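Researcher: Structure prediction, please.
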Amino acid sequence: MKRILMISAVMIFILVLSKLASKAPAAPAPGVAFALKAQKVVACSPTEIVLVDEHHTATRLDIDSSWPDCSTFEKNDVIDFYLSRGDKSHFVSMERTAWWRKAM
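Model: Predicted structure follows.
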C-alpha cells in the first residue's frame, strides 16, 4: 500500500512539473521579428526610445545604430514599427498606422 502511494505521488509530481514546464515560454532567439502597432514616440535618445500605444501603455526599448535619427519622429505621428530582437532592438522598418487602427 505504501509503495503504491509513493509511486502515485511521484507520477503526480512528474505530471505537475511537466505541465509547469510547458507553460513557461521559451526565450526568443536573436533575430526574431516582431511588430509594435499604433505607437507614438514620447521620448527618444541615441540609446533608447519610449513608445506609447493607444491604451497609454509605455514600452521602453534599448536601440542600436540601425534606428533613424530622433528628429524623424514627429510628436503626434502614430506609427507601426517592425523590429528585430537582439541585445538591443534592431530597426527593420516603419510605416504610418492605418486610419482604422488609430480609431480603435
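Model: The chain has a mean pLDDT of 88.
Researcher: Thanks, that helps.
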